[in-house]
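Incident log, entry 3
Record: RNA pseudouridine synthase (219 residues)
Problem: checksum mismatch between cached and fresh output.
Input:
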Amino acid sequence: MAARILLRTDAVLVLDKPAGLPVHAGPRGGASLEDWLPQLAFGKKRVPQPAHRLDTDTAGCLVLGRTQPALAELGALFAAGRAEKTYWAVVKGAGPAEAQGRIDLPLRKTSSAARGWRIEPHPEGQPATTLWRVLGRGPGLCWLELRPRTGRTHQLRVHCATLGFPILGDPFYGTPAPGGLHLLARAIKLPLLPPVMAKAPVPAAMRPAFAACGWQAEA
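Fresh output:
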């Protein structure tokens, strides 16, 4: 896991979390990022702790605080919406007709015995806003940049699916596909002193779909 560190300061770590690894251990057990946190202390008395959420299925930038004051400051930034998060996604279909836009769609959690819990659009749900921009298109696919302005659970997945272009490989709101969920927490920018900026590479499993939309591997 230490090889997946994108940025390390005295107060902050930014980790390239692999898709499929939950951040926290669940009630059923199994591997989680918590198993590796002691190895990421690098001499600190406290092990680093995640400052925000990142879905199990989502790969990319995860911010951790290395000290209690740093964790508190990071938590305040994320709570206030001051952390600038940029995601990349490949969605199914032609995607939106416009080049860019904004999604304002309140979301709430629902559950049933048959389907378990899910997130659904609902006028009485919590406000949720996503800015999007088309970066490329391919046969039956579209590459989007997504910038959430709120941090609701499954926000990007539900917003895209509701507008008719589910994220490729989404088992909750679309259909599974080779390479898994094609959603990458591509970059993070934090207004700290000095500012923190990090960028995650496109995982190997996602590269064919991104390449089909015009993405080219970085040197």
